[in-house]
Design brief:
Blueprint (H helix, E strand, L loop, with lengths): L16 E3 L4 E4 L2 E9 L5 E2 L14 E5 L3 E10 L10 E7 L5 E6 L10 E8 L7 H5 L5 E7 L1
Antiparallel strand pairs: 1-10, 2-3, 3-4, 3-5, 6-7, 6-9, 7-8, 9-10
């Protein structure tokens, strides 16, 4: 069996995770990730869901999240699908609202646990993956984390 050669000019699929319009909120001080808070038990989550994972309440309220947090943990990935450029860094960031968010992280050389990082959000330049996601409408966004 012959192996298919990898493309020479590999590109990452995007700078960060692609979100739907419902996952971000625009406020007077910019665009923020939008999680949810349960009105029954006060559990906070991201991404938002219609049912609380702690108490199963369906009374979830939108929760704009801060654009800065603390890096909890990170890892640099060296082996990935052929279409992805490696290495890249991923990590968990604790936001002040008590939500831990996973995503890509820039600046691996400057990272350390407990480092302050900014949440970067910008319009995504990718097409919807399916007709179902295209039907959700609205602009698409992407986010990632960067050292402060």
């Amino acid at each position: 069996m012959s192996a298919t050669p990898h493309p020479v000019n590999r590109q990452p699929p995007h700078l960060g995770r692609v979100l739907h319009a419902r996952d971000v909120v625009e406020t007077e001080d910019g665009v923020h990730l939008c999680g949810a808070q349960c009105a029954q038990c006060a559990t906070r989550i991201f991404p938002a869901a219609t049912v609380c994972p702690a108490c199963n309440s369906e009374n979830m309220q939108p929760l704009p999240l801060a654009n800065e947090g603390t890096l909890y943990a990170f890892s640099t990935v060296h082996v990935a699908p052929a279409a992805w450029e490696t290495p890249y860094t991923i990590g968990y960031v604790d936001l002040p609202e008590g939500v831990r968010v996973f995503g890509k992280v820039e600046g691996a050389a400057q990272l350390a646990p407990d480092a302050r990082v900014a949440v970067r959000i910008e319009p995504a330049a990718v097409a919807p993956a399916s007709a179902a996601s295209a039907a959700s409408g609205g602009p698409r966004w992407q986010y990632w984390f960067a050292p402060r």
